Amino acid sequence: MSDLSVSEYVSHQDELEQEAKELMPWDPKTCTYEMGPLRQPVFACRTHKYIGLCYSCSIQCHTKCDIVELFTKRHFTCDCGTERDNQEPGERGFRCQIRQNREPDVPSFTNTYGQNFRGLFCECKKEYDPDSNDTMIQCVLGAECNEDWYHESCIGKNFPPLESFDAYICWKCVKKYDYYFKRILSHALSEKIIAHTLIHGIQEDKTEDPKPSSGMKRTADEVDSQPNNNEYSIFLKEGFSENLGKLKDSIEGNNDKLYLFLNDLVPFLIRDEPVYEPVENSEDTPDDMISNILRNAMHREQAIAGISAFNALKNKLNEFLKPFAETGNVVKEEDIKDFFQRPEGTSK
Ligand SMILES: [Zn+2]
Ligand SMILES: [Zn+2]
Ligand SMILES: [Zn+2]
Ligand SMILES: [Zn+2]
Ligand SMILES: [Zn+2]
């Protein structure tokens, strides 16, 4: 067994490089602000007024901030260096280090800031706990919940097996569009669209304190006519998009409300909107890559459980590489082999 420096090791080990690319697959050089609203990976900065940042800005501009990874959000515009960002200008006087604007840019007026931007997730409003085994899933509709993430256990009893459905719509979003979902559920094609419905959670006692206002207005009528036991989530079947498309096409008359709902409000359920991907990381030198991983790892302490295996690996790799990167010491080949032989996703 020979000892290698970190850079020697990396240059000889495709495997490590692959892992590094998975941890930080993109080159953080492009801010998406100028591209306007996009479906993209979003990061919230809890140090600077909870604004949402694009991938590159989370790494380049808010380096020392408390960042929460939110995964993808639709229709989001980066708020780094806009009037929403109260970060002091950097050394060179730039607001966003990538766009190099000296005056704050005009923020998008379409960004929606839900609780995730404060680092809170699910109905239980908790921070992400990387040690929890309670899987979290994201609401694919997002109209009411801002594409929130939910714990299995908070969604309801008898949560179906993950492999039995393809996408999830939370009870809040179902309730918002109750009329349309009732029609979809009673349609002949619903068997091919809906895998399960699940009543939300434990029935709440009416004497409990009302939930703190989240800024969402509810009319008295809505509250009265929609008792809690009518709240249910929908789990969509694999192939739901195609069949929702068929359902839409089967509707006669383009003024039908369901047609308009599917066509105008939730077209992404029929035709999945691609996620913007920053430029791939391909030219990094191994040393850069390692420092990037380390820097990035610090940004991602609060990632979401859908990728808990990824997270565990990241933490392990980070722990493993840190002393070497700091001191420039050699890495023993056996250590690295041992590292990669551990099964992915196990934490110990
Ligand atoms: Zn940006
Ligand atoms: Zn910040
Ligand atoms: Zn920036
Ligand atoms: Zn929860
Ligand atoms: Zn939702």
Question: Explain this structure to me?
Answer:
The chain has a domain at 139-204 and 218-270. The two termini are 25 Å apart. The relative contact order is 0.16. It has 348 residues and is α+β, with helices and mostly antiparallel strands. It is globular. The chain is 33% helix and 14% strand. Helix 2 runs parallel beside helix 11 (286-299), helix 8 (240-250) crosses helix 9 (257-265) and helix 11 (286-299) crosses helix 12. It has a three-stranded antiparallel β-sheet. A three-stranded antiparallel β-sheet has the order 7-9-8. One zinc ion is lined by residues 31, 57, 61, 80-81, 96-98.
Quick rundown:
By secondary structure, this protein is an alpha+beta fold. The protein has helices at residues 6-12, 14-23, 55-60, 152-155, 171-176, 178-185, 220-225, 240-250, 257-265, 267-270, 286-299, 308-327, 333-341, and strands at residues 3-5, 38-45, 51-53, 67-76, 136-138, 149-151, 167-169, 194-199, 232-236, 330-332.
